[in-house]
Amino acid sequence: MKTISAAVAKHMANLSTTDGVISALAIDQRGSLKKMLADAANKPADETTIVDFKKAVSSELTPYASSILTDPEYGLPATKVRDKNCGLLLSYEKTGYDTTEPGRMPDLIANQSGLRIKNEGGDAIKFLVYYDPDEGQEINDKKQAFVERVGAEAKANELPLFLEVLTYDANIPDAKSEEFAKVKADKVLQTMKEFSKPEYGVTVLKVEIPFNIKFVEGFNGDNNVVYTQEEAKNLLKKQSEITDLPYIFLSAGVTSEEFIAEIKMAEEAGADFNGVLCGRATWKPAIKPFAAESEEAGRKWLSTHGKENIENLNEALKGAKSWRDKLEVAE
User: Record's Pfam families (predicted)?
Assistant: First the structure.
């Protein structure tokens, strides 16, 4: 069992419900959000629009979330209007990844640091790494060292480190394809096993569901079935057994209904997951009325449908376990 300091435990309590379940809202999208807002408005999105949308999501939805994840580039104004009982995670990485070299290398925000995240009121550092466990060791060794440095910085500032890992295959360009769906589970499980090692200093893993639900029996639509529902549940159980760390699910662009179905499968599988960090599945449909009509229209959607989405998700989280079962507080 991983041991954490009393200061880190206090931050973890700020980020979770009284039951120790993390029900977090993610609005740290930058490049993708800018594009979605521009497409909805049929004109380029300026920085003010991005900031205002994040503020709307924060003020309307944080009363129903245990914490919010945002970025320090556009999201700090949103942190000022969050619910008083809502904890705060701040991203440390730039959006996307470094495109100047192969391997989807991470890149940090130039004017950010663990200390600055702490001084801005952050309860945790969130760091994202793209990872293909089957890629060359030269590339993966650099990523592993990168996470070690961020973990050491989080420890020095007595902040939890939430490590988000997104898997890919260097030889499969389309992550939504059936070809990738067939290898995704192994990628997710290998990656979780690697970053559960103590040298990385990870407090909570933010991970993918180990399958693409659009290729699961009953949810596949026109796609071929890659996994039956029973096979999908077995993968969720195997995922739970591969790490001793608290872990939470990311929504990865699926709909609210699909994400809730995934969470229910995890509960049925007996997986010891500890919550969610849900983004687009909760608020994405608000973009169109916000950008194409008015801020008022966007807020109306958030205060009704967005609220319903997050309340439905919270209801589905009844099967989640407390992070306190996996972390020991030092005396």
Answer: DeoC
Give the global pTM: 0.96
243 Cβ neighbours under 8 A, 6+ residues apart? 192, 193, 196, 205
| Three-class DSSP labels, the chain | CEEECHHHHHHHHHHCCCCCCEEEEEECCCHHHHHHHHHHHCCCCCHHHHHHHHHHHHHHHHHHCCEEEECCCCCHHHHCCCCCCCEEEEECECCCCECCCCCCECCECCCCCHHHHHHCCCCEEEEEEEECCCCCHHHHHHHHHHHHHHHHHHHHCCCCEEEEEEECECCECCCCCHHHHHHHHHHHHHHHHHHCCHHHCCCEEEECCCCCHHHECCCCCCCCCCECHHHHHHHHHHHHHCCCCCEEEECCCCCHHHHHHHHHHHHHCCCCCCEEEECHHHHHHHHHHHHHHCHHHHHHHHHHHHHHHHHHHHHHHHHCCCHHHCEEECC
Task: Let me know if 238 is exposed, middle or buried by CB neighbors in 10 A (0-12, 13-18, 19+).
Answer: middle
Among candidate residues 271, 275, 315, the one with its CA nearest the CA of residue 67: 275
d(CA 122, CA 92): 11
Looking up tokens 């490049």 gives 31
Who contacts 233 (Cβ-Cβ below 8 Å, separation ≥6)? 265, 268, 269
Q: What is the pLDDT of residues 86-118, one digit of tens each?
A: 999 999 999 988 888 889 999 999 999 999 999
Nearest to 110 by CA among 98, 123, 101, 121: 98
Backbone angles phi, psi at 166, to 5 degrees: -110, 120
Return the structure tokens found at 78.
Answer: 């949103």
Answer with the residue of higher pLDDT: 98 or 269.
269
Q: Tell me the residue type at 215.
A: F
